[in-house]
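Why do we care about 3D structure at all? Because function follows from shape, and shape follows, mostly, from sequence. That is the central idea of this module. The next example makes it concrete: a single protein chain, its amino acid sequence, and then its structure expressed as tokens.
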Amino acid sequence: MGVFSFLTAKRPKTVGALGGHLQPCDPDKSNCVCSQHQAEGRHLGPHYVQPFAFEGDPGDAMSRVIAVLMQRRNCKIVSNRPDYVHAEFSTEVLGFTDDVEFLLSAQEQVIHVRSASRLGLTDFGVNRARVKDLREAFDEADE
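And the structure:
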């Protein structure tokens, strides 16, 4: 066990899709973003990010997600199903672990995404930046 292994924390119970939805972000923390997160009423809230849009075969789109994740050196794919992918990202210096999930909605032609830190109240925008980077790579892989 490394000096900073306590920073990885155990896999949270908030990981996983239930009833076609990713778990919502904790409204009291700013260390999570999710394309299915909505605040009270119709406002999307500060946790919201756009899902990954695609055209064509849903299986091909999920394969692109896997290919993009496999290009990241600090990424480990934990679960890979036809409609759901869970990956863990770790920071290079301290080894903090973040969970990133993708949930296919073939009918909507989108892949919903959730990226959340396991520890802390804030992530200083790391999860939002990660999703933006992954989305750009996903879109470029389709060109």
